[in-house]
Amino acid sequence: MAAFGVALVLFLSACGGPKAASGTEKASVSGYRTVRDVRLPGDTSRWDYEVYDPASRRLYIAHLGASQIVVFDTAGQRVAGTIDGVADVHGLALAPDLGRLFASATGQNRLVTIDLATLKVVGGAPTGSYPDGVAYAPEAGAVFVSNEHGSGDMIVDARTSKSLGHIELGRDIGNSKHDPASGVVYEAVGSTNELVAIDPTGRKVVGQAPPRWLRRSARGPGRGRRPPPALRGLRGQRHAGGLRPRGQARDAAFRGGEQP
Fold this sequence. Notes:
Shape: globular
Order of helices and strands: EEEEEEEEEEEEEEEEEEHE
CATH architecture of the largest domain: 7 Propeller
Structural class: mainly beta
Number of helices: 1
Number of strands: 19
Strand order of the largest sheet: 11-12-13-14-19
Strand content: over 45%
Distance between the termini: 52 Å
Mean pLDDT: 78
Number of domains: 2
Largest sheet: 5 strands, antiparallel
């Protein structure tokens, strides 16, 4: 059985330059080189999201094709363990303050809770259709799960695994990402080609980056305006700055759970 490998890359200081050490390969990004390839368990079927814990120096890798999460020790450059039976695992999100890892078990339409100390599944909650991205918002004590084949985000209590409701976003919901600097959760909405900003505490949409800005942004640097302020941080702002404030465009209704 073929094994999948992870390439470790080392940053070279400016004074040292991008020279590759003997027996290593230059990486495609200037200032980096490949240190070594490490074999991982399982076959070469699809791998998906990764999340890194700087405190433990562990990298958690979703092996979707094997319904398995591989735990890689970056300090020792070895596999520290595996978590099996997470059906068609996609998204991963760490909650270091709770000692938990959250994963979307897409094959079961569930969010799975994993104990970081034992690497055992200790809980879970039902989600919508085809859960994909997962984001943990510590200020709200909640996990946001994007339902790619559904119509928005499912919100789950990070401690009790109880459902806190659903935020309607549209269709074809992609990745979810919590920004600790601004305290918002960003969602990629494929049906409208928008980047949506969510206030995790109020559980409501606070802004949307319209398709016209995303098209300008895709042209590259120097072409078009700077990113909207919401993409650089929302702290202290009444709404999402350059993103459309809620109410000026398609409404994003809150369903279920407590009304904000």
